[in-house]
């Protein structure tokens, strides 16, 4: 079970790091989907980019020997992506970014679940 946790969490770290940094730097391809979901561009740096990046760091810290930090980070990312999916649904936005939000939510839930199971 630890191997599954490790694989899912490493993937979640990589995905959230990339996505968080892209949001922090207002990567042009993500702007249209954010607009369609009704998210102001000013939110890309904080809270969106910051929370994704800090979540990725927390997951990594969990992998490096502080498991409670990893579980807390996975719980935080789960909450973040539940809110992201809800925002897309409210806006009627089913663009590729909605699909990405579902994928990120799945990774966060998997990391949280497996993290709790191996403790």
Automatic annotation (TrEMBL):
GO cellular component, one term: membrane
Domain of life assignment: Bacteria
Keywords (A to Z) from UniProt: Membrane, Transmembrane, Transmembrane helix
Annotated transmembrane regions: 43-64, 71-91, 97-118
Classification via InterPro entries: DoxX
Pfam assignment, any one: DoxX_2
Signal peptide: none
Location in the cell: Membrane
UniProt topology in membrane: Multi-pass membrane protein
The protein's name in its UniProt record: DoxX family protein
UniProt source species: Kribbella shirazensis
